Amino acid sequence: MKKLTQTLKNIWSIEELRSKILVTLLLIFIYRVGTHIVLPGIRINPAAADANQGGILGMIDAFAGGAFNQASIFALGIMPYISASIFMQLMTVLVPSFQKLQKEGESGRKKINQWTRYLTVIVTLVQASAYVGYLNQMTQQNIASLVPAYQSYFYLSTVVLLTAGTLFVMWLGEKITDKGLGNGTSIIIMVGILARLPQAFGQEFSAKSQPVGMLLVFIIEIAILIAIIMGCILLVQGTRKIPVNYAKQIVGNRQFGGGARQFLPIKVNSAGVMPIIFAQAIMFLPTLFSFNKNSETSQNIAGVFSDHTNIWYMVVYSTVVIGFTFLYTALIFNPKQIADNLKQNNGFVPGVKPGQPTADYIGAIMDKITLPGAILLALVGILPGIAQLLGVSANFSTFFGGTSLLIMVGVILDTLQQIETQLLMRQYDGLMKGGRIQGRQTVTQASI
Predict the structure, then answer these.
(1) 274: which of 8, 187, 199, 217 is 20 to 30 A away, CA to CA?
(2) What broad class describes the main subcellular location of this protein (predicted)?
(3) What's the whole-number mean pLDDT along residues 101-120?
(4) Element (H or E) spanning 146, and its range?
């Protein structure tokens, strides 16, 4: 406890770090206030809206901190920007002209960021138009009601306000990245997820606190949740280190480098949370069959793929996650490029020839560690359904795994790593006695 107090004092005594923390908290507060501002012309029944969430819409609502079902001006949250960023990231991998632009340095990154913003506007306009249809559907289900006098202006004003709201949230994320602490986009998503934790925790505690024996069950649930979080930390930080040696360089009468052994860290889970996000989107598609009310088969298919506790859902979901993990890892990880970079910098893997043999060696290691990483990622993805089968409430079970837990663990690790770096730069003790905290960005770029 004494060391924790001293660490907090050290953090607060660093003016730059204190300023970053205060700016981050202020921008997060502004974002949370905006999530409670309802779109003009509509009234929402919060209880009915919460009961209506599920599938991909439930995931969007979780990322938006409940703003989606509340018809807030931030209802779409940061998701259109995330979609645009993922698309541009794939373009830089698949299209040579974008690869060349990315290698131009700061100027290339600025152009890609600018195109990402333009694409965000287009994606937001499309999603905002679809969201108006979703609000009309909620109106038909008596979950929401439109003000009659405002009905003729509702479509235009909603699309404009949702687009402006998403762009403002995107601006908040960029300001957190520039002036605050951590990656702004990731922090906004994490805050939206954590905003639902107190309510879910309270509901679970109320359900388990009445019978005396059930309180022990609640304590066991919390212990299992902590164990799962520790396992996710190992999954996020797990790496395989490949030894790399650098040859001596002699320039004139001076020797540079020589004999220094370093390590090339390869992540067990290089794909991050992207396979889970893609899998959830794919699993949502069969539920579209539910629109065919006259087909019993389509209703059964839709029922299976909308029930997270169904065994067939878990099997198909796990298979899709494993497949997407290998696919996405192959897209973002290029052993040939790594081998070429090592060769250009006079680096080599001991016992392996430079060039293509090094690329084959790195690729083989990547394939070996990707399989257990993919299996563990699939297990994390189906843990909420398993927890719900074991008696955990639907809202609280979402924190036992899936996208929410992985994002929270990854973002918290990244933020703590930045704080520790600031402490060590000023010769303070780090946050941990043994070893340094490693975030997702220490080895490869974060997916979110």
Answers:
(1) 199
(2) membrane
(3) 86
(4) strand 144-146
Provide the β-strand partners of residue 240. Answer: 266
Query: Distance between CA atoms of 110 and 114, rounded to whole angstroms?
Result: 6
Query: Which is it for strands 254-257 and 248-251: parallel, antiparallel or unpaired?
Result: antiparallel
Q: Is 264 helix (H, G, I), strand (E, B) or coil?
A: strand
The CATH 1.10.3370.10 portion of the chain extends over: 1-195, 224-400
How is residue 142 written in tokens?
């008596």
Helices 356-389 and 402-425, interaxial angle, to 10°? Answer: 120
Q: How many residues are listed for the chain in this entry?
A: 448
Tokens for 296, please give them. 């019993």
Q: Which superfamily does CATH assign the domain made up of 1-195 to?
A: SecY subunit domain (1.10.3370.10)
* Of the candidates 188, 238, 274, the residue with the CA atom closest to the CA atom of residue 373: 238
Bridge partners of residue 348, in order along the sequence: 245
Residue position matching structure tokens 């690869």: 99
d(CA 84, CA 116): 6
As its CATH architecture, domain 224-400 has Orthogonal Bundle (1.10)
* Residue 279: CA count within 13 A, CB half-sphere: 32
Largest CA distance in the chain: 86
- Alpha-carbon gap, residue 248 to 257, rounded angstroms: 5
* Least confidently predicted of 254-258, 369-373, 377-381: 254-258
Summarize the confidence of residues 354-363 as an average pLDDT: 89
| Strands 261-267 and 239-246, bridge-based pairing | antiparallel
Cα separation, 374 vs 276, in Å, equals 10
Task: Report whether 209 contacts 215 (CB < 8 A).
Answer: yes
Q: How many CB atoms lie within 10 A of CB 305?
A: 23
Q: Which residues pair with 254 in a beta bridge?
A: 251
Token pair, residue 437, equals 């905290």
Closest to 82 measured CA to CA, from 269, 320, 274: 274
Strand partners, 144: 44
Task: Of 388, 367, 351, give the one whose Cα is nearest residue 243.
Answer: 351
The dihedral of CA 194, 232, 187, 78: what is its sign?
Answer: negative
pLDDT, one tens digit per residue, over 141-180 is 777 778 887 888 888 999 999 999 999 999 999 999 898 8
DSSP letter for 191, please: H
Q: At which residue do the structure tokens 């997702």 appear?
A: 440
- For 279-329, write each residue's pLDDT tens digit: 776 776 665 555 455 556 655 666 666 677 888 888 888 898 898 888 888
Cα 258 from Cα 139, distance rounded (Å): 71
Coil, strand or helix at 167: helix
Q: How far apart are CA 268 and CA 329, in angstroms?
A: 10
